[in-house]
Specification:
heterotrimer; A: ABC transporter involved in vitamin B12 uptake, BtuC; 13 helices; 71% helix; C: Rossmann fold; 2 domains; six-stranded mixed β-sheet; four-stranded antiparallel β-sheet; 25% strand
Chain lengths: 341, 298, 255
């Protein structure tokens, strides 16, 4: 079981790496270098990473353009928040349950949207999800339980950096293990050539709906985290522009590269905070970014490259060399940048 | 009787809005038919056309010219915009994966909206009256002149377009390119020119739609095109994408459905109903009402 | 070769908007038989493949695999039932490695579920290890093992064709449909390929239906040849019989 031994080692490495990063941030907070404001920014970064990585599953790995990610996020946010408001349980447990509820409700909607649309060839998903996002927003603005146009208030602030960070780590890990399983290979095959995939026995419609639903599920989780961080929800926060912001993260980082999504989400969220006074220009810059990246570097910053901590450590200590077959998150992706996503 | 009059009025309203959707849907259908791309920016071409109208109407009036001449200016500018967009943003991605072109189209759409918002403020602005027409009485129902004009104009344009595509050399080239662009090229058709002409015509139709829209709802804002464009796209899918009479039919159906929902159910639900129609179409007959079933070439 | 019929079509036909692309197509493929399907360009050969693999649904007639009617089945169901194919214009999973290309097809017969895949339970490791070995073994048979980690799109043309056949075999087919496997190859490569097709049939115990428009290529290896033109069978029989059939000569020379 040499294969599983190397991957188990790499799981350990990744866990230790995540723990070290966490410890550093906590130490900086304790030392007062990271203040409350920066902690808030870090939580938003975690949430944006979850959103970007989960959208990348549909847009990058499956190759289907979805424009309603903010809609699924809002469903998760409202469902989770409503649960949190009425929950008598302690904060931590409420948060975890509300994330599961938010994710599940979002996934149900993902299923309802995905089934009619994804069995068709063509780009209907883009249009449907765009419309879906807007309709959800209108509905949230008009329902009583969601607080109507004035928004939902009084949501307990259960989200803290620790939970946001570890939820993010788990979500990333799940994305990696999913994509390196037989199911992930089927998803990639559909993206590469759905006719050939179907001929090779892949149930294309099933996998398309499955991927889209999973994507919605994690968007719902991000929404639940978000609602209990901000404390109040207004439907306007989840408009079409929000969906586009998430898409920009995915496109910029590289369609199909989770590493790219993580880097882009971290970088762009930070930039947005730094450049608040230019917020009028933000959407214009995003629009240009989408066009220019697609025209001149369609693979984004990272192509389909994935960073691997294990590989980095191995390289530093020169323990292993050559093209040993590897699996799991440390899997070596082809070096050549692949423009044809 | 009052109920009936109200119903007929709503029906006429629906057909009027539907005519505008139809004009936009024609552009969508032509472009989709030839490059298989949902041109998300198409709706925003309407917005550009509306701003052109906003700017030229006062100028025309001061020069003593009729205000409706703004339609000519809008048509020229939108056609140029459409051709330029295709050349700059879409043409380089013709052989890329579909998602790249779609993302670019979204980018162009957002770019136009936000550039106009920055240049002209995001607030709505009022437009002067464009057409001065007398209302027509049909029995007990009074129909505004603009309404009749919109409906007649869209039907005439649809018929002309159908003639153009079926009878002229360029129209045949368009059909050939949409069928198989590589083969069309081998037969000596200039594919690039054909695609450019398609974008020019489609965008010009968006300009006409923009002027008629402004004549009915006399205000413009930078985001007006996105929802209008979406509904028109749904109309195109409903009628059968790539089919010219289908776009017209789809436009009318969507317009009437929307107007009836607003009148009898709830105005907030109107958009949801339109998207509901799209989902039902995709479930029941994804090729649309007049669409043909075409298998993908393997 | 046994006498058991594995794949049969009865009056199979399809009409596209009034145009009959294939009609009255009757064919029987026995176990371990190698049959050539030939005909001029546009005769309807690939359409027949598309019918047999569920890409198109027949407008008339029936497809029977091992006694079971397969009409209405989707391509992935056809693949699972044992009809696997290659494509005339190579369709590999371009952004994926050579090994992964084969694993995709293997994966459809694997058992572990999504949760087991995400949480990497024991069955995940076991099956993945098994599949890895099987996939490498298969690549070895096609002399592709050294490229296992390369992107499929970076392979030379001839190797891509081979990989496509390997991928089809990974679906453990009972009937293999090869659509012009020699297209674009030079005479030496073609001869080599024909030989390996023979080998495949023997070592995998399967029946092969082979499309080719160049008659001379299939003469040497096929037991039987079916000739079609304008969507209809114009001749069938041993290579010798077919080659001397005046109708076939007519179709090819285009009277």
């Amino acid at each position: 079981m040499k294969l599983s031994a190397t991957t188990k080692r790499s799981n350990l490495v990744n866990l230790i790496g995540s723990a070290v990063l966490f410890a550093v941030i906590m130490a900086l907070s304790a030392a007062g270098i990271i203040d409350r404001y920066l902690q808030g920014v870090l939580i938003i970064i975690c949430i944006n990473i979850i959103l970007a990585v989960s959208l990348n599953l549909t847009a990058g790995c499956l190759g289907q353009l979805a424009l309603g990610h903010a809609g699924f996020m809002s469903i998760g946010a409202y469902a989770g928040a409503i649960f949190a408001i009425y929950s008598p349980l302690p904060g931590e447990i409420t948060l975890i349950l509300s994330m599961l509820i938010g994710g599940a409700v979002a996934a149900v909607f993902g299923l309802l949207v995905g089934i009619p649309v994804l069995r068709l060839k063509g780009d209907y998903l883009a249009i449907i999800t765009l419309g879906f996002g807007e309709i959800i927003r209108v509905i949230m603005e008009n329902l009583e339980i969601t607080g109507g146009a004035s928004g939902l208030r009084g949501i307990p602030n259960n989200t803290n950096f620790t939970t946001a960070y570890w939820v993010m780590v788990i979500v990333i890990a799940v994305h990696f293990t999913l994509m390196w399983s037989r199911h992930g290979r089927s998803i990639k095959a559909i993206c590469a050539d759905d006719i050939a995939a179907e001929a090779a026995g892949v149930r294309t419609t099933y996998y398309k709906v499955f991927t889209f639903t999973i994507s919605a599920f994690f968007a719902g989780i991000a929404g639940a985290l978000y609602s209990q961080h901000i404390g109040l929800l207004s439907a306007k926060a989840f408009d079409f522009n929000r969906s586009i912001e998430i898409l920009v993260l995915v496109v910029l980082g590289g369609l199909g590269s989770f590493t790219g999504s993580i880097v882009a989400a971290t970088g762009l969220t930070t930039l947005t905070e730094l450049l608040r006074e230019f917020s009028d220009w933000r959407m214009l810059v995003y629009a240009l970014a989408l066009i220019l990246v697609m025209l001149f570097k369609p693979s984004g910053l990272f192509g389909r490259y994935e960073f691997s901590l294990t590989r980095l450590i191995d390289r530093i200590f020169k323990k292993e060399k050559g093209s040993k077959p590897s699996r799991g998150p440390e899997k070596k992706l082809p070096k050549k940048e692949d423009a044809k996503v | 009787m009052d109920q009936l009059i109200l119903f007929v009025k709503q029906l006429i309203n629906g057909i009027q809005v539907g005519s505008i959707y139809a004009l936009v849907a024609l552009g969508y259908t032509m472009v989709y038919g030839i490059v298989k791309l949902i041109n998300f920016a198409h709706g925003d071409f309407i917005m550009v056309g509306a701003y052109v109208t906003l700017a030229t109407v006062p100028f025309l009036i001061t020069c003593g010219l009729p205000a409706w001449a703004c339609i000519l200016v809008a048509v020229v500018i939108c056609a140029l915009l459409g051709v330029t967009t295709e050349r700059v943003a879409y043409k380089p991605l013709r052989n890329s994966p579909r998602i790249s072109a779609l993302i670019t189209a979204i980018g162009v759409s957002l770019f136009l909206q936000n550039a106009f918002a920055l240049a002209f403020s995001p607030e709505p602005q009022a437009i002067q009256t464009i057409f001065r027409l007398n209302a027509v009485n049909i029995g007990e129902i009074q129909v505004a002149g603009v309404t009749l004009l919109t409906i007649v104009l869209s039907v005439v344009i649809m018929l002309l377009l159908q003639l153009f595509v079926k009878k002229t050399k360029m129209g045949k080239a368009m059909r050939a390119v949409s069928e198989d662009s590589a083969a069309a090229q081998l037969m000596g058709i200039n594919v690039n020119t054909t695609i450019s002409v398609t974008f020019a015509i489609g965008s010009a139709l968006a300009a006409v739609a923009a002027v008629m829209y402004c004549a009915i709802y006399p205000q413009v804002d930078p985001y007006m095109g996105s929802l209008l464009g979406l509904k028109a796209f749904i109309a195109a899918v409903l009628g059968g994408i790539g089919v010219i009479p289908g776009a017209m039919l789809g436009g009318f159906v969507i317009g009437i459905a929307e107007s009836m929902t607003k009148a009898y159910i709830s105005s907030q639900l109107a958009d949801a109903v339109v998207f509901g129609i799209l989902i039902i179409v995709l479930l029941v007959k994804p090729t649309g009402i007049l669409g043909k079933n075409v298998g993908e070439k393997v | 070769m046994s006498d058991k019929i594995i794949l049969k079509t009865e009056n199979l036909g399809i009409t596209f908007g009034g145009l009959k692309a294939v009609g009255d197509f009757n064919m029987e493929l026995r176990e371990k038989e190698l049959v050539g399907l030939i005909g001029p360009n546009g005769a309807g050969k690939t359409t027949i493949f598309n019918l047999l693999t569920g890409v198109y649904q027949p407008t008339e007639g029936a497809i029977i695999l091992d006694g079971q009617t397969m009409n209405g089945k989707k391509p992935h169901q056809m693949a699972k039932a044992g009809i696997c194919r290659t494509f005339q214009n190579i369709r590999l999973f371009k952004g994926m490695s050579v090994l992964e290309n084969v694993k995709v097809a293997f994966g459809q017969n694997m058992k572990y579920n999504v949760a087991q895949g995400i949480f990497r339970t024991k069955s995940y490791w076991q099956e993945e290890k098994e599949i890895d070995e099987k996939a490498r073994e298969l690549l070895k048979m096609f002399h592709l093992e050294e490229f296992a980690g390369n992107l499929a799109e970076n392979l030379p043309y001839g190797q891509q064709r081979k990989l496509e056949i390997a991928r089809a075999l990974a679906g453990s087919p009972r009937v293999l449909l090869l659509d012009e496997p020699a297209a674009g190859m030079n005479p030496t490569e073609t001869a080599e390929l024909m030989e390996s097709i023979e080998n495949i049939r023997r070592s995998f115990d399967l029946s092969i239906l082979l499309i080719e428009h160049d008659m001379s290529l299939v003469m040497g290896i096929c037991e039987r040849i079916i000739v079609i033109d304008y969507g209809m069978i114009i001749a069938s029989g041993t290579p010798y019989e077919v080659a001397n059939n005046p109708k076939v000569i007519g179709a090819y020379l285009g009277e």
